[in-house]
């Protein structure tokens, strides 16, 4: 290699590395940009009351996005999370109001803690069905979760004939009171849902970075065949990520019905789109093998701030959908550009070393 070629190679590698670093920081840049824009354009955007309200909205999307992150990292997708939200909310509301009718003249009522546990199990169960369809029956993740999307939404509608379970104050006699704490309660001035999110995010980040299961999740997404040949139980890993996604969706169903003190079967419609947008914007690659929980949380803040800021500016819901769609497209395009640039920089570094 001549001196001129060496200098040219160094410059190309340096330029590529700078662009690559900017792409890796795209979520922080986007968060900073939307904060500055709405702080200027929307009055009272940075008020304490609005920030707390916005954090509750962000938490709902962040729960779903964390589960979606693990699913996408393995190379899958989960379109059913929004319907699981609606189904789990209806399960909790129905158990609080009507209990469980055993059809033999007896009705069993559970206390609030048992209702929360049962609802979480329902969410995990739907996730397990997704996992079984994908791992045992070899159904494509898109088709499998699209099917459970309709099944879960239909079951939610059937549970009340399309109606709402209202006024979920509960009955002291059956221990079903206090449900509102999960959605409306506060601890040290912050909503309980924020604390739940913090605990779950730390646990998910620890799992992803510090446990064999976390390494297996990324290995499956990076190269499923190689992961299987190396001894990783690919089916079990996929089962876990879909069950975790269902668990996260169940939490959202509980929080929303608790906050509203009512359950509606249409709750959660299109939530999966926001979750996918937050995960991809946070750096999760749609082709699998790459993503972080921290990036997903920041991506959730970007989506949440964008949604609330547009509402405060009076932008119509239709235009909000257009803007969110464009955000997803741009995030995927940047992700693909990042992958190509990484390959290019790696090749230049190899050429330089040679």
From TrEMBL:
Record carries keyword Membrane: yes
Which controlled-vocabulary keywords does the entry list? Cell inner membrane, Cell membrane, Membrane, Transmembrane, Transmembrane helix, Transport
Which top-level group of life is the source organism from? Bacteria
* Principal localisation: membrane
User: Which InterPro entries does the record cross-reference, listed alphabetically?
Assistant: ABC_transp_permease
Annotated TM spans: 27-46, 58-77, 83-100, 112-133, 187-208, 239-256, 293-312
Question: Could you tell me the membrane topology recorded for this protein?
Answer: Multi-pass membrane protein
User: Which Pfam families does the record match to this protein?
Assistant: BPD_transp_2
Where is it localised? Answer: Cell membrane
The identity of this protein, by name, is: Erythritol transport system permease protein
Which source organism?
Labrys monachus
């Amino acid at each position: 290699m001549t001196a001129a070629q060496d200098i040219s190679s160094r410059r190309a590698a340096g330029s590529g590395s700078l662009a690559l670093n900017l792409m890796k920081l795209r979520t922080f840049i986007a968060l900073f940009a939307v904060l500055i824009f709405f702080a200027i354009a929307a009055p009272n955007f940075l008020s304490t009351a609005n920030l707390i309200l916005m954090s509750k909205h962000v938490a709902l999307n962040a729960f779903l996005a964390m589960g979606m992150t693990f699913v996408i990292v393995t190379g899958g997708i989960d379109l059913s999370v929004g319907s699981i939200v609606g189904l789990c909310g209806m399960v909790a509301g129905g158990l609080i109001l009507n209990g469980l009718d055993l059809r033999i003249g007896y009705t069993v009522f559970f206390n609030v803690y048992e209702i929360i546990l049962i609802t979480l199990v329902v969410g995990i169960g739907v996730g397990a069905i997704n996992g079984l369809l994908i791992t045992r029956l070899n159904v494509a993740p898109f088709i499998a979760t699209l099917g459970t999307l309709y099944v879960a939404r239909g079951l939610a509608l059937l549970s009340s004939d399309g109606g709402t379970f209202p006024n979920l104050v509960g009955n002291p006699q059956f221990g079903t009171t206090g449900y509102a704490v999960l959605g409306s309660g506060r601890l040290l001035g912050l909503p309980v849902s924020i604390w739940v999110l913090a605990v779950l995010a730390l646990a998910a980040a620890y799992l992803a970075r510090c446990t064999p299961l976390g390494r297996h999740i990324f290995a499956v997404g990076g190269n499923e065949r190689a992961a299987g040949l190396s001894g990783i139980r690919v089916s079990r890993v996929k089962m876990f990520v879909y069950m975790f996604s269902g668990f996260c969706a169940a939490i959202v169903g509980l929080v929303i019905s608790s906050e509203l003190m009512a359950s509606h079967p249409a709750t959660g419609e299109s939530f999966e789109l926001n979750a996918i947008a937050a995960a991809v914007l946070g750096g999760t690659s749609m082709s699998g093998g790459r993503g972080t929980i921290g990036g997903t949380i920041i991506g959730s803040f970007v989506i949440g701030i964008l949604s609330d800021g547009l509402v405060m500016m009076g932008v119509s819901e239709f235009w909000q959908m257009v803007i969110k769609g464009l955000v997803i497209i741009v995030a995927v395009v940047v992700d693909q550009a990042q992958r190509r640039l990484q390959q290019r920089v790696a090749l230049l570094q190899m050429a330089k070393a040679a």
